[in-house]
Design goal:
Blueprint: H1 2-21, E1 40-43, E2 52-55, E3 58-59, E4 77-80, E5 86-91, E6 95-101, E7 106-108, E8 119-122
Antiparallel strand pairs: 1-2, 1-4, 3-8, 4-7, 5-6, 5-8
């Protein structure tokens, strides 16, 4: 009787271990959720899709290859997870102001700013 009880307990433990080993894993963040706290994120697609650029202070020239690549004149949405406003410019060196994004959730760029941004900074 004791041998049977041990066998049953071992079988139950093995079944419990099997259930734990097949539990689903957490999925990677997508869309606007990819943007870390205290950062400005820009995306090459609408609604936080496409390639992502993550900024702490901005970029004077998105075309120069310093920092994220492929964003110059290729930004369609943004998420501002900082506490301040960010300004977007159609030219390098913060010239040609086109838009200001406030803190909070994600948004698609306004039509005047879509795929024309060449620099951005906190403002």
């Amino acid at each position: 009787m004791r041998h049977t009880a041990l066998a049953a307990a071992s079988a139950a433990a093995a079944a419990a271990a099997l259930v734990v080993s097949v539990a689903p894993t957490a999925s990677a963040a997508t869309g606007y959720a990819r943007c870390p706290a205290n950062r400005m994120c820009v995306f090459t697609g609408p609604n936080g899709t496409g390639a992502i650029g993550i900024f702490r202070n901005g970029d004077v020239n998105l075309a120069d290859g310093v920092g994220p690549v492929g964003l110059n004149n290729n930004i369609e949405s943004m998420r501002n997870r900082t506490s301040g406003y960010w300004c977007f410019y159609k030219d390098t060196n913060y010239n040609g102001y086109v838009w200001r994004g406030g803190p909070g959730g994600g948004a698609n760029t306004i039509p005047a700013a879509t795929n024309v941004i060449s620099s951005l900074k906190r403002c």
